[in-house]
Design goal:
Helices cover about 35% and strands about 20% of the residues. About 0% of the residues have low confidence. It has four domains: about 90 residues, no CATH class; about 70 residues, Translation Initiation Factor Eif1; about 170 residues, P-loop containing nucleotide triphosphate hydrolases (Rossmann fold); about 190 residues, P-loop containing nucleotide triphosphate hydrolases (Rossmann fold, 3-Layer(aba) Sandwich), CATH 3.40.50. A hairpin with a 5-residue loop joins strand 5 and strand 6. It has about 550 residues and is α/β, with parallel strands linked by helices. The protein has a seven-stranded parallel sheet with strand order 12-13-11-14-15-10-16.
């Protein structure tokens, strides 16, 4: 039994948990507390976690009771756990399951069941719920099938997550089998953590009430697509896959043809260029959210709502656009898989992902996969550069947004980028930025191709293919390359500018170089010294420091 002074956790009354990195029991304590808390930061000596309603509800959905949470904290805490924390855990965790959905009596309605008389009375008097819920006595409300998702959103905003126990539709049957040798000639099977993720999503062999929906959180480069394909193989049902762009659509199709026996004629592309509806259809968020004008309906929503899908996969679910939240709220009877490298949303709608797609079913630390060799070891370096003297006064008198742009487009970055490339002549290099003018100048200086949103999809894919083959060693790319682009040989990324403080963007850009390879990956972030860009860079790095990455700091003076 551990003596108190040897225990590695300090539980504080502000709901933060401090975990001592150098303690002998660090790894076991981390594994015990991670399922019910959120990692806030992870510098060298102490990692900080926080207890939140969402973290505790995720734990509850995974079968971790409030008593287990308190027991684990008592086991590892150096000091007595504050009573206020125990009260918060019991109160918050107990709310999961107080409301649950079950099948209604007529096939057109559902039952919202309430386990508390007091909560039932509260719901009766919430104005926003009166039009959606019909009280029928016995602490039960009836609601229309179409209002299933809307009710979940309203109730989680009120602090009461709904446990959805309504059986999910199996959809139309469609056979799919994984290959043991890929079409490209490589041996293939699910890695151990990929198999665990599939199991966590489905539970036992067949989905049952409460299973078959949820989110899988995995690092970029770890094979989230393979997890999706593994789930499709188990369910053998018609599947709609929604992803970020046309290049990602084609990558999904290529992976399905390479790793499964599905015929090419059974896979449809539904994008701006092609409108094919097949048993397995891959589309983009952009096509779903397109409409002729702001007053019109979304004509392509019918792809989601008017077909007998058994499974919908939301790739990069942290980017789910608001209109897709709306249509997702109407299709709660379908199995739903969200996949992402980070559940961080800059609009703070993580609770809606929890309600509409489902709770987090599986995640794994980035550093754990790095240590096992499944993703590349990454060295992150922030290079701080001076602002040229002739821009100091324009920067000083500029407004907030213009200050950021002047710092981001610092002309000294062109010289620094050229020097970094000179130091990595054997690598495949991505130069990534936010501002098109800056990227055009860099492409010209570096004599490198440029990919932006205005480059046709066919041309983009041609350039990506040349990069994969080694015909091109340097690509200059805008934010269109942030997401779902498979460039396995990329080993260096140079970020010259970013979207203010977007943590998800930082994670995705690092992810471009994390495919496993024989050499280390290098991520360079160029930041103008003594400007607002320093603060925004610190915000962007927040998520990666949570994952255990440390930024080296270098000063560049030209």
């Amino acid at each position: 039994m551990l003596h108190a002074q040897d225990k590695p956790v300090i539980v504080q009354s502000d709901k933060t948990l401090l975990l001592e990195v150098h303690a002998q029991e660090f790894a076991q304590a981390r594994d015990d507390i991670a399922p019910f808390s959120e990692l806030i930061k992870s510098p060298e000596h102490f990692h900080t976690y926080r207890l939140t309603p969402l973290s505790l509800w995720n734990a509850s959905s995974a079968g971790i009771t409030c008593e287990k949470v308190i027991s684990r904290l008592n086991r590892w805490s150096k000091y007595p756990v504050p009573q206020s924390i125990e009260h918060f855990i019991r109160d918050t965790a107990s709310r999961y399951g107080m409301l649950y959905l079950s099948e209604g009596p007529d096939g057109q309605t559902l039952c919202l069941n309430c386990t508390s008389d007091l909560l039932y009375q509260q719901l009766l008097h919430y104005p926003v719920l009166k039009k959606l819920l019909t009280p029928v006595g016995g602490r039960v409300f009836h609601l229309h099938l179409l209002h299933r998702g809307q009710i979940k959103i309203h109730l989680i905003k009120l602090g009461y997550p709904v446990e959805d126990l309504v059986p999910l539709s199996k959809g139309a049957h469609h056979p799919i089998t994984l290959r043991s040798v890929t079409a490209s000639g490589r041996e293939f099977s699910l890695r151990d953590y990929q198999y665990e993720a599939v199991q966590a999503f489905l539970g036992q062999q067949q989905p049952s009430p409460g299973l078959g929906y949820g989110t899988v959180v995995m690092p970029c480069g770890s094979g989230k697509t393979v997890i999706g394909i593994g789930i499709m193989e188990r369910l053998k049902t018609q599947t709609l896959i929604i992803t970020t762009n046309t290049a990602a659509v084609h990558q999904w199709i290529d992976e399905l043809l390479d790793k499964t026996t599905v015929a090419e004629s059974d896979i449809g592309e539904y994008t701006g260029a092609r409108k094919e509806m097949r048993p397995i259809t891959v589309c983009t968020y952009q096509i779903l959210t397109w409409r002729p004008d702001r007053e019109s309906d979304f004509p392509h929503f019918k792809l989601v709502t008017e077909h007998d899908w058994g499974l919908i996969i939301y790739d990069e679910v942290h980017l789910l656009p608001a209109p897709v939240f709306k249509v997702t709220s109407e299709i709660q009877a379908v199995m739903r898989l969200g996949m992402t490298a980070t559940l961080v949303r800059e609009d703070h709608r993580e609770d809606e992902v929890f309600s509409l797609i489902g709770p987090k079913r599986y995640d794994i630390p980035w550093k754990e996969l790095e240590q096992k060799g499944w993703i590349a070891e990454a060295v992150c370096t922030e290079i701080r550069l001076p602002l040229p003297e002739h821009l100091e006064i324009p920067y000083a008198v500029a407004g907030r947004a213009e200050k950021f742009r002047i710092a981001s487009e610092n002309p000294n970055k062109k010289t620094a980028v050229a020097q970094i490339i000179e130091n990595h002549q054997e690598d495949h290099i991505l130069v990534i930025g936010q501002y098109i003018r800056q990227l055009k100048e860099l492409a010209e200086v570096l004599h490198a191709p440029l990919i932006t949103g205005k480059v046709a999809n066919a041309k983009r894919e041609e350039l990506y293919a040349q990069f994969r083959k080694g015909d091109i060693h340097v690509l200059v790319v805008s934010k269109v390359a942030n997401f779902a682009i498979d460039l396995p040989d990329a080993s260096v990324a140079i970020q010259v500018s970013g979207t203010f403080g977007s943590r998800q963007e930082e994670a995705q850009r690092l992810g471009r170089i994390l495919r496993p390879k024989k050499r280390n990956a290098h991520f360079y972030n160029l930041v103008t010294r003594f400007t607002s860009e320093e603060q925004f860079a610190a915000n962007r790095q927040h998520f990666l420091t949570e994952q255990g990455y440390q930024y080296q700091m270098e000063m560049w003076d030209g």
